[in-house]
Write a structure and sequence with these properties.
single chain, about 130 residues, mainly beta, four-stranded antiparallel beta sheet, 2 helices
């Protein structure tokens, strides 16, 4: 397994969750990492992503989660976290972690078809 998500669950609206994506070291290093989500009957959509360049790099968030979700990376553990706060029912979806050897430009990172590696997904449900 090269990418493995965890941390999903059921939470009330306004609550928080932290999703975890554990990656193999060979993927984690030098890859752009992203989170996507998919609801029944909908296409997989970009949520957040970043390509770390040293300690920097641009972080991108979809408009629907900006200000509520944040990314964090633990290099020692080859792990990517997504902190999700102020959850709303519309955030309900299966969340997927993805990685690719990508440019850190937004137009590439937001497209699911550009990613080579995917986790199995973790379900997030938000009750109203």
């Amino acid at each position: 397994v090269q990418l493995a998500e965890s941390g999903g669950g059921l939470v009330q609206a306004g609550g928080s969750l932290r999703l975890t994506c554990e990656a193999s070291g060979s993927i984690f290093r030098g890859s752009a990492m992203g989170w996507f989500r998919q609801s029944p009957g909908k296409e997989r959509e970009f949520v957040a992503g970043k390509k770390w360049i040293g300690s920097g790099g641009n972080t991108y968030y979809s408009d629907s989660v900006k200000g509520r979700f944040t990314l964090e990376r633990d290099n020692a553990k080859s792990t990517l976290y997504m902190h999700m706060n102020k959850l709303i029912p519309e955030d309900k979806a299966v969340y997927y972690c993805a990685a690719a050897r990508l440019s850190g430009r937004y137009e590439y990172m937001r497209e699911a078809t550009n990613y080579e590696h995917w986790g199995q997904g973790t379900q997030v449900t938000v009750s109203s």
